[in-house]
Design brief:
Elements: H1 18-26, E1 37-43, E2 46-54, E3 60-65, E4 78-79, E5 85-91, E6 98-104, E7 110-113, E8 129-130, H2 140-151, E9 161-164, E10 171-172, E11 178-179, H3 182-196, E12 200-203, E13 207-208, E14 221-225, H4 232-244, E15 248-253, H5 279-282, H6 297-313, E16 318-321, H7 324-328
Parallel strand pairs: 9-12, 12-15, 15-16
Antiparallel strand pairs: 1-2, 2-5, 3-6, 4-5, 6-7, 6-8, 10-11, 13-14
Helix pairs in contact: 3-4
């Protein structure tokens, strides 16, 4: 077994304040993605990463990763009380570190879970979350685009939307027919859309998903762009480049369901946390996926903050919401009994 010299993380005060916990409890923390997840920061004069996760039914939670040999005994997290938040600040852990949460359920089982609020993920089929630190500097053209967008009446202008699946739109035939990267797409797609006269591009879901055959519609990483085409900052560059060419960016967003993959949201803390516990309301019979429990304040907070996240952090211009009917009607795709 390897030996580790570890600075005591419990010497640091919790990184979440009373107001954060209060707003989370009420389900109205619009910037919750800045508090939960993994965030590189300087805290109490020390550089490191603050980890926080919501797992109210867990008996214990540890953060594990390549910085502690994936050993859950080394970094058990601190419980912040009945709100179900667990947190820990780890000195010297920085961008690029891979991690998961090791959760001890009420039934005594150990589950390894990816971070629901992770902003970067490993390339499938690997499933770990990745600590990330955004460094993209938005261009003057993007700033002008945002300012002009606020000053105009968009409903009074013509809109023509080009819908595209980034993974299959155009392939690199010189390199084994691979998909293009965000940076390659930024140039080629901008030129193509401009030539055809479209005003906006709509991307099929770019959120992290394990199965490419779902075309992005079975999301496991709601706050992380798929790494198949590059880094989070590469996607920011893509949006920036579109705005430089006068093209708006719309993202397909999937709050209607999520897959059952064991590493992700399904039975996250050993209970039906994000999904509805009643299988008649918590599962889609057609798609084999789970349905969010929209009646739970924390779940609504997760989804609303996620929508705002893509608008704020990636400067996208709109969201197209997928499968709305399945969220509105309890009898959607269900036979009468």
């Amino acid at each position: 077994a390897g030996r580790f010299t570890i600075e005591d993380p419990y010497a640091y005060a919790p990184t979440l304040g009373e107001l954060d916990l209060h707003l989370m409890g009420e389900g109205r923390h619009k910037e919750i993605y800045e508090k939960l997840g993994a965030h590189v920061t300087e805290y109490q004069g020390v550089r490191g990463t603050a980890f926080a996760v919501w797992a109210p039914a867990a008996r214990a939670v540890s953060v594990v990763g390549d910085f502690n040999s994936w050993d859950g005994r080394l970094h058990p997290m601190r419980s912040l009380g009945l709100n179900g938040i667990w947190e820990l600040f780890l000195p010297e852990v920085g961008a690029g570190a891979r991690y998961k949460y090791e959760i001890l359920t009420a039934g005594g089982e150990l589950a390894l879970k990816a971070d629901p609020y992770a902003q970067e993920t490993e390339h499938p089929p690997k499933t770990a979350s990745v600590v990330t630190e955004p460094r993209h500097v938005w261009s003057d053209a993007d700033a002008k685009w945002i300012a002009d967008r606020r000053a105009q009446a968009p409903l009074g202008r013509p809109v023509s939307i080009y819908e595209v699946h980034l993974g299959s739109w155009r392939l690199n035939t010189l390199q084994g027919n691979r998909s293009l990267s965000y940076l390659e797409l930024a140039d080629e797609l901008a030129a193509y859309i401009t030539d055809l006269g479209f005003t906006h591009v709509e991307l099929l879901p770019v959120m992290a998903h394990p199965f490419s055959g779902s075309w992005g519609y079975q999301v496991t990483g709601y706050f992380a762009p798929t790494p198949r085409h590059g880094s989070p900052d590469d996607l920011r560059t893509f949006v920036d480049r579109m705005h430089e060419h006068g093209i708006g960016v719309i993202l397909d967003w999937v709050p209607a369901h999520f897959p059952r993959d064991e590493f992700a949201l399904a039975r996250f803390d050993g209970t039906a946390l994000y999904e509805h516990d009643d299988p008649r309301r918590g599962a889609h019979p057609d798609w084999g996926t789970l349905v969010f429990n929209y009646g739970r304040l924390e779940v609504r907070n997760f989804l609303i903050a996620n929508a705002l996240f893509w608008l704020r952090e990636y400067h996208v211009d709109g969201l197209r919401v997928d499968a709305v009917a399945s969220m509105l009607y309890l009898d959607y795709s269900r036979r009468a009994r």
